[in-house]
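TICKET: design request
STATUS: open
ATTACHED STRUCTURE:
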């Protein structure tokens, strides 16, 4: 999934509160995170629902969660996000055609991708659009040809399955599953489509790494799969227990092969992510956002440390590090505008 599902209610902030907040941004001598009035933050959090994206973001950097999910700092369009959205949209349309008995083959996905990428044309420069269109037309027919045998023999196919109104240990959670598939063997597989360079094994393995114990938060992709297990287990009327979670990469590797990473989630892993959910939710409720993540590449921690102005090069992040959220920046600096 390319974007998070965190849901918040709009809150009106009085003009004097806004002015006070802007002054706090200018007075950055202590390099601390300026918080809005705590009562106003509480109102923003009243409708908080955690998704895999929002949980991953808070665990990686509470300050990032604060700026993007609490303040709602607008994020710009980006070529990686545009391509990921176009790929997901095309695969969704393709799987629905397949499910409904319509023509669905490698040529079909090419036609659908050409339609889907047009929906996100504003995410690209003209040259980027040309390059990503060609790239999608190269990889998607090959990916579909590789996966079609499994999809065609499935007893059940559900694309873009949203699961809402779920409570886990008093924590409201939500999620959207790219594909739920029940094979002839009766096993229920939850499949998440991923774009990005599969040959960057260091970065990929970091995201796929299961947590070893409660002191280890594990990788984002592993946590996402366990999160889906929790969602399906709590949603009693869903399509059953998840037998297997799969991260399926639509880009082929340097050998021309497509990589799928299977996860068989165990009870201990569920308990670890459950603990992460409960602990993170409580910290959000306690407004524990001013925590330095100590990552040199972190946009928001750098923003605070550098008097609330960032050099553009400090927020140019790689495709592998960013699949859901991107910031706009000019040639030299980024200027933030907070809309309350």
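STATUS: resolved
RESOLUTION: sequence designed for all positions
ATTACHED SEQUENCE:
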């Amino acid at each position: 999934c390319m974007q998070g599902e965190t849901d918040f209610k709009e809150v009106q902030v009085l003009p004097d509160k806004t002015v006070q907040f802007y002054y706090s941004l200018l007075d950055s001598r202590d390099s601390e995170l300026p918080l809005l009035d705590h009562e106003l933050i509480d109102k923003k959090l009243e409708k908080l629902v955690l998704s895999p994206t929002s949980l991953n973001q808070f665990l990686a950097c509470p300050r990032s969660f604060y700026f993007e999910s609490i303040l709602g700092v607008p994020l710009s369009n980006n070529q990686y996000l545009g391509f990921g959205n176009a790929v997901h949209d095309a695969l969704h349309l393709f799987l629905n055609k397949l499910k409904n008995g319509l023509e669905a083959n490698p040529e079909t996905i090419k036609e659908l991708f050409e339609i889907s990428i047009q929906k996100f044309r504003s995410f690209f420069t003209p040259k980027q659009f040309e390059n990503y269109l060609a790239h999608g037309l190269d990889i998607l027919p090959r990916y579909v040809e590789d996966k079609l045998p499994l999809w065609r023999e499935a007893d059940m196919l559900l694309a873009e399955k949203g699961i809402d109104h779920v409570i886990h240990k008093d924590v409201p959670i939500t999620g959207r599953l790219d594909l739920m598939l029940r094979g002839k063997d009766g096993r229920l597989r939850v499949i998440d489509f991923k774009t990005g360079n599969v040959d960057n094994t260091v970065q990929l393995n970091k995201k796929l790494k299961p947590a070893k114990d409660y002191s280890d938060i594990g990788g984002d992709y592993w946590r996402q799969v366990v999160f889906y297990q929790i969602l399906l287990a709590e949603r009693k009327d869903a399509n059953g227990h998840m037998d297997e979670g799969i991260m399926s990469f639509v880009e082929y590797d340097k050998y021309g092969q497509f990589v799928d990473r299977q996860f068989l989630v165990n009870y201990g892993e569920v308990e670890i992510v459950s603990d992460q959910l409960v602990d993170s939710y409580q910290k959000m409720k306690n407004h524990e956002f001013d925590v330095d993540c100590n990552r040199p590449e972190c946009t928001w921690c750098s923003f605070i440390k550098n008097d609330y102005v960032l050099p553009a090069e400090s927020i140019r992040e790689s495709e592998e590090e960013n699949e859901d959220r991107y910031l706009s920046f000019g040639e030299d600096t980024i200027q933030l505008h907070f809309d309350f």
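CLOSING REMARK: Strands lie at 156-168, 171-182, 188-194, 244-249, 260-263, 310-311, 333-334. The domain at 156-275 is CATH 3.90.320.10 (Lambda Exonuclease; Chain A).
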